[in-house]
## 1
Amino acid sequence: MAMDKYDISGWLVRPAGIGWWAGLVAVLAALTTHTVLVTSDGGMDNGIVVDAARTWLDGGSPYDDEHFLYFPSAVMAASLQALLPRSVQDVLVPVAVVLALALGWVCALLLHRVPLRSRLAVLGLLGLAAGFAPFAQLVRLGNWTVTAVLALPLCLLLASRGRWVAAGTVIGVAVALKPLLAPMALLFLFARRWGALAPVVLVPAVSSVVAAFFLPDPTGFLTRTLPFLFTADDAFLRLYEAGPAVVLPRLGVPQALAQALAVAAAAVGVGCAYRRWRGPGPEPLRLAETSAGLMLSAFLVSRPSYNHYLLVVLPLLLAGLPYAGSVTRRPWFWLALVPQLPGVTWPWLESGKRRAFRDAVTLCVLAGTVAYHAVRGARGAPRAGEGAGRAADGWRAATEGAVRP
């Protein structure tokens, strides 16, 4: 890691003053309080899941709502919320979402061994909350994507410390709640951690099979949800989907060609992610950038694919900023985030019907940048333990400087 006087790494890892922390707390408190005052059931997306659980508790099938896209195991988890009064959920869910987002950021910092008292710890979370519009959208919606935002960095933190089975269990639990992190099974294949791959598959599979026996429509996810995801043309979802397979047809590209381009881009992304895993550099950085490449590739082809999905990978990448070899040192990484700046008016793209176009730009540019970095960035980096050793030495120098008065 470059640590000369012109590098920002040393400045980022030094302790932040109390004023910095006060600003961060004020922003998070304001966001949480505003959400509590304007939402019901903790947010629209959380309400969909909880309403499905209420339907089940009343004897119906949760899959009667075509927008309920979760495994049967999620019904059981949501039923706990369904038993709570709406007034309690209005407060509990926004607070829980903000706390989960903050904990995910903490895990990302610990993965990269960034001091929790550092300036990056404050500025990173503050930048996400105040400078990245999907952060506030996720809080307002109460979307269960937040489980993946917390689970992925926690998984990688455990893996970086050699606890791969525990890491696989975390992913398995997260998939049981929401299948968003299913592509992370490829990381365990890359690492040849077969024992750790087992809970990734078995936890959601077993929990869903058991939960299905308690549903009036045990095969509802297979007979209703999967066909809906693959074949349905839902006008409501389409307006907000950022994947090129959905956005390109809105620009006149034939559906078959758009789907083929998205699949090809995703395949290239997975190949680049494997290249990054096999490449040089510190293990935490390889874990973070490989996982980001896998998830972004999945977002290119998954349905639905929303802008707040980017919060699954963004904290992992941002926390690696002190590393000279991080993808965050590339200008296109930051340019990809420009369309998501809150308060910026983009002509002809502000309405809900067109917002997906700028979301698609962010997704595609970010995925392309991570894929390019995985190949070109790794090509010029030192091989084997040399690069990792130099990065570790530089990091120790930075953290030693961070604790000096």
## 2
Amino acid sequence: MLTPSAITIIKSTVPVLAEHGHSITRVFYQRLFENHPEMKHIFNQSNQKNDRQSQALATAVYAAAAYIDQLETLKPTLLPVLHKHRSLQIKPYMYDIVGTELIGAIQDVLKDAATPDIIDAWTAGYGEIAKLFISLEAELYQQDEQATDFEGYQPFVIETMTTESSDIKAFTLRPADGRPLAPYQTGQYVTVRLQAPDGLWQNRQYSLTTVANGTSYTIGVKQDGSVSRQLHGLSVGETVLLSAPAGSFTLTDALTPFVGLAGGIGLTPFLR
């Protein structure tokens, strides 16, 4: 448990760290990939180039820190992130790595302003945030194992490829080992894992576009990024890796009226 003094320090320094958040998260990623190059296989390298990932991390960390004494209230808003982490196979030990490099980045950027008391408080605070994420993600992993018998990334064979438009193809993917597939919820997605030409494994999420049939998944892929271009270049019979369906953008009550607005490739979650 955090001490009252640690909570006070964290809350009082959130605005200061948020002001330097962009610099801190950029240094964090530099430290992370230099000290743990294997983490490049987890993080979206395209988002690294456009700086989107560092901005998202800064927003998430400082929002959580602002509620450090009432983290349980964040559960509903964390659900999409938890599903994303589960789909990417984020494991507990990774939080230790991230925590070490994040605290190191705070020290690098703030220098003498990052006093021992501040660093101790933020280290303890990050530990509480990580503990919450780990416990909630463990529940999702357990649900996968019980409902789908689907662990980690599994090989799927491209059964069909259908051209839907000039830049969109539909891929029907069947388990390479013929395993039956458990039902998934409307609006969920799968994560496709491909090895890029430079040797890095890259992961992207694509919405499932057909009703669950127990034998295959179908996704729609717009050719607008490195992984989607690589997917478009594959052929029927080739194999890709997938993790189990995830995502909290689902309809839980079919009797309640629902209106959805989408355009372009954003239509894919509604195609069932």
